[in-house]
Design goal:
By secondary structure, the chain is of the alpha/beta class. Helix content is 39%, strand content 17%.
Length: 284
């Protein structure tokens, strides 16, 4: 479904999360999709080695950089974070795989710390660096300023990732692209519960939802982008697939968002951009 729609990358959960996760990643890597398959792992050699063995096209490395996460997540200072990053990035690159390095909780991290860290990993030859608003606190103005500043520091691609806790995810993704980011990542989390191990497979791709609600609808981002660059968006993505992707049990075509909603057992909002039942209705 996602591959047919036109996404460039499909990011999967970490193989270190569970044995089921590892098997799922290996199975997806064998599907022969056009999209590149990535796995989202901690910036840790053990995770990286396990991920490389699954057959993915690249690794998305992440580590917390805010003061809170440094204290309560992994206990490393910024110098130790850079040391870990150098070790893991060099290993992944030696295997011929793509590598993205991302901070977590970027917008509550110290700006000088972030820029120093990104400059260091850019010098190693990473494909992308990532900015992640993992608590959904950023405003569009903050996003634009940070991405614009980062664009002047690194030469690699810039990926962004936004949560919608305060309602700015689509706006933040759009202004990030305006400021110089090259990829705006949203989430699609699909859970497959294994009755034996109670493990979950999570697929993440460029544009959709979170595990708790359809926070960042793909239709919303597409609607915003198509106004700015109609030819690019319609040429790259099969927009009709927003409404005509997959099949339900009774054979009727289902929207991507309906498919996700059914899997996570939430409802698509009636006023969801583009695909909601009342999306195009107006009332003065």
């Amino acid at each position: 479904m996602l591959d047919d729609f036109g996404v460039d990358y499909i990011e999967l959960t970490s193989p270190a999360a569970s044995e089921q996760s590892r098997r799922d990643i290996e199975a997806i890597c064998k599907l022969g999709l056009k999209a590149k398959i990535l796995t989202h792992v901690r910036c840790h050699m053990g995770d990286a080695k396990l991920a490389v063995e699954t057959g993915v096209d690249g690794l998305d490395l992440v580590i917390g950089t805010s003061e809170l996460l440094r204290e309560h997540s992994h206990g490393k200072n910024m110098s130790q974070i850079l040391e870990s990053a150098i070790e893991v990035i060099n290993y992944v690159k030696s295997k011929g795989l793509e590598v993205r390095f991302s901070s977590e909780d970027s917008f509550r991290s110290d700006l000088v710390d972030l820029l120093t860290l990104y400059k260091g990993v850019d010098a190693l030859g990473v494909n992308r660096v990532g900015i992640a608003d993992t608590v959904g606190c950023a405003t569009p103005r903050q996003v634009y300023d940070l991405i614009r500043t980062l664009r002047g520091v690194v030469g690699c691609d810039i990926e962004t990732h936004f949560h919608n806790d305060t309602g700015c995810a689509i706006a933040n993704a759009f202004v990030a692209l305006e400021a110089g980011a090259t990829r705006a990542s949203h989430d699609l989390h699909i859970y497959r519960i294994d009755t034996k191990d109670d493990q979950m497979l999570i697929l993440r791709f460029l544009g959709l939802a979170s595990e708790t609600e359809l926070q960042k609808p793909l239709g919303g981002l597409m609607a915003r982008m198509i106004v700015s660059d109609h030819d690019y968006v319609t040429g790259k993505y099969k927009l009709h697939k927003l409404k005509e992707v997959g099949a339900t049990m009774d054979g009727e075509l289902a929207k991507i968002e309906d498919f996700v909603a059914a899997n996570v057992q939430v409802n698509v909002p009636f006023n969801n951009p583009v695909t909601g039942v009342c999306a195009l209705n107006e009332q003065d």
